[in-house]
Amino acid sequence: MLAYPSYDGMPLSAPACLLSLASPLIEAGFDVRVLDAAVTPAWHARVLRECADALCLGISLLTGPMINAATRVARLVKDATPNLPIIFGGWHPSLLPAQTVKPNFVDAVVRGQGELTLLEIAEHLAAGRELTAIPGTTMKTGAGVQHNPERLVAPLDCLPTPAFHLADFNAYERLCGVRKLAYATSVGCPYACNYCTDMVFYKRRFNALSSERVIAEVPDLVARYRIEEVALLDSNFPVDIRRALRIAKGFVDSQVHFRWTFQASTDFLSRMTDDEVCLLAKSGVTHMGFGTESTSAEVLKLMNKRHQRLNEMYETARKAALGSIHVTFNLIFGYPGETEAQRLETLQTMSEIAREFWNVSFSPNIFTPYPGIPIWPQLREMGLREPENLQEWADLPLGKNILPWLQGEELSRLRRMLEYFLLNNQIRKATKDRKILRHGLRRVLGAPLRWRIRARRFSFPWEIWVAKSIEKVTTRRSLLTGQELSTDIGDVC
Question: Do 2-147 and 178-387+401-491 show the same overall fold?
Fold first, then answer.
């Protein structure tokens, strides 16, 4: 029994992590049930019913509010079936296995790549053997917590195709309004950004499916399940640029038409020629997300993001615009050592990029310190207390500000700066509104907003009050798809 708890926001598609775990189990003869809380009515009751005669329960979870949903269902199952092994896996348990395994409703943690580890666990349980020395696991013993050796990472091409036949794409379409497939062609990123959990989870290894397999699988899945859009889950899709272009050309040659989106870093996209980026567009790419974070060279150095260069941000926007591809630039504010002058530099530069290129949107966030990131020693020195248990990590959603160096007047000023920045960008984009009065108001508001950003004057925000009275302000967008994630500026900070 594999369960995916509820979380904030609209689901992307069926949880690819659980479908990947299910596939080796099915090949080995196990009967696998996958339940996603987002599309399963009476989810707790269904999980309890399926667990009544199950071999074990596996729950995948991320840091943040999803932990609350995971722990609640785990407690319910443990109370109903005390002898059923409950196994946590996914990003958060892998980053903090000893802390995750402590509660009495968790029996073991699968660390990192879980397909072969969970298969071995199931085989042990089916044979009546104890879960003792399985590589890639952390578990309780009579003496405390036991960390078994790491499991060697399997090349993705050695793993079977995720069990997409277990997904109810009709249910996701009813909920989201689009038939979307979440698919990973690779995992890992070669860079070592100090704020990123990806480098901790994958240890900077780029592990990718062959272009031939991707070209064969994706169009087939699109045709079989009538998929409209494929959202690639890759951390940095074009790390191998030649491979990325082979995949795009393969999609074109397949003559199976669909939209697809991915995340990348601007340095890889900038290395492509204009024609190569247009090939991406021809193959169906409609959106790309980039973790640009800042335009300040000093802040990027603090982030250990030396591969990120300002000219490449402009080039990325320009090349994407040639193919009519939308881009979203993620921005991080409040990073340790960042000054207000550097924040304003980022906002002003990004405003210039957006003024020049129609296809650019932004997703600003307050720096969120996730588990295991390399900068934690510095954060502790700066007075930030690290969460010590699952419940405390559950209270740390993206955007929640817990930074001791960003409080009071400085935080209020940052909020106001972001409001002006987002509203200015939104007004710039809204040039084809058929409502004459609303369009006129946008024109009236645009000039003073631009002046405020240039002059750094943010008091008495009459423009924001007027704007909010006529329309919502988009504050964050998904890096995977570009869709709106929230509409309240308070969610940003």
Answer: no
How many of the other CB atoms lie within 10 Å of CB of 460? 8
Burial of 457 per CB tally in 10 Å (0-12, 13-18, 19+): exposed
pLDDT-based confidence at 449, cuts 50/70/90?
Answer: low
Inter-residue contact 356 to 350 (CB < 8 Å): no
- Contact criterion met (CB below 8 Å) for 131 and 123: no
User: Which of 193-207, 375-389, 451-465, 479-493 has the weakest average pLDDT?
Assistant: 479-493
Report the alpha-carbon distance of residue 276 to residue 241 in Å, rounded.
10
Q: Which token pair is 191?
A: 């860079």
**And the tokens for 16?**
């690819």
Residue 81: name the closest of 114, 115, 47, 108 by CA.
47
Report pTM. Answer: 0.88
Q: According to the model, what pLDDT value does residue 434 have?
A: 45
Fold of 2-147: Rossmann fold (3.40.50)
Q: Are strands 57-60 and 108-110 parallel, antiparallel or unpaired?
A: unpaired
Architecture of domain 178-387+401-491: Alpha-Beta Horseshoe (3.80)
The closest of 118, 148, 120 to 136, measured between CA atoms, is: 148
The H or E element spanning position 294 is none
**Alpha-carbon dihedral 112, 308, 282, 350, rounded to 10 degrees:** 120
Confidence of residue 489 (pLDDT cuts 50, 70, 90): very low
Laid out side by side, the sheet with 86-89 consists of 34-36, 2-4, 57-60, 86-89, 108-110, 137-141, 144-147
d(CA 228, CA 256): 10
Helices (H), 81-141: 91-95, 97-101, 115-126
Question: Distance between CA atoms of 426 and 287, rounded to whole angstroms?
Answer: 18
d(CA 492, CA 472): 14
- Give the C-alpha separation, 476 to 422, whole Å: 9
Question: Strand, helix or coil at 357?
Answer: coil
Biggest distance spanned by C-alpha atoms of the chain = 73
Return d(Cα 425, Cα 239) in angstroms, integer.
30
- Minimal CA–CA distance to 185: which of 254, 263, 259, 111? 263
Beta bridge partners of 35: 3
Domain boundaries, the chain: 2-147, 178-387+401-491
Residue 351 to residue 392: CA distance in whole angstroms: 37
